[in-house]
């Protein structure tokens, strides 16, 4: 974990304990003295990838701390998107090839 990620995680933890809900990206930006919310989005994405937090995409204040009693899993987290069903394979009968018809003789020759 990088020092900035540690600061971000500590900020989220402190905010949760003080307020009972997650901070917004703008509150994290000002609390960590960063210039853009994109920086916060990157930090939160890395924390989520490493298993320290979970969040619902495109939902404000949806960051949740993962249980600290269990250490985060090693390596990338499995995808939370549902598995797609197996594609159906259609069997289409192919007609037997027929030979080209004999060319007709030219009656004018």
Summarize the model shown.
With 109 residues, the protein is mostly helical. It has helices at residues 3-19, 25-31, 37-49, and strands spanning 53-54, 64-65.
Can you put this structure into words, describing what you see?
With 109 residues, this protein is mostly helical. The chain has a domain of 54 residues: Arc Repressor Mutant, subunit A. 34% of the residues lie in helices and 4% in strands. The protein has 3 helices and 2 strands. It has a two-stranded antiparallel ribbon with strand order 1-2. Helix 1 crosses helix 3 and helix 2 packs across helix 3. The longest helix has 17 residues. The chain is rod-shaped, with a radius of gyration of 30 Å.
How much is the average pLDDT?
Answer: 79
CATH superfamily of the domain at 3-56: Winged helix-like DNA-binding domain superfamily/Winged helix DNA-binding domain
**Helix-strand string:** HHHEE
The CATH architecture classification of the domain at 3-56 is Orthogonal Bundle
Biggest sheet, strands in spatial order? 1-2
From the alpha carbons, calculate the radius of gyration and give it in angstroms.
Answer: 30 Å
Number of strands: 2
The N- to C-terminal Cα distance equals 89 Å
CATH class identity of the domain at 3-56:
Mainly Alpha
Q: Which structural class do the helices and strands define?
A: mainly alpha
The CATH topology name of the domain at 3-56 reads: Arc Repressor Mutant, subunit A
Helix fraction? 25-40%
Strand content: under 5%
Low-confidence stretches: 69-73
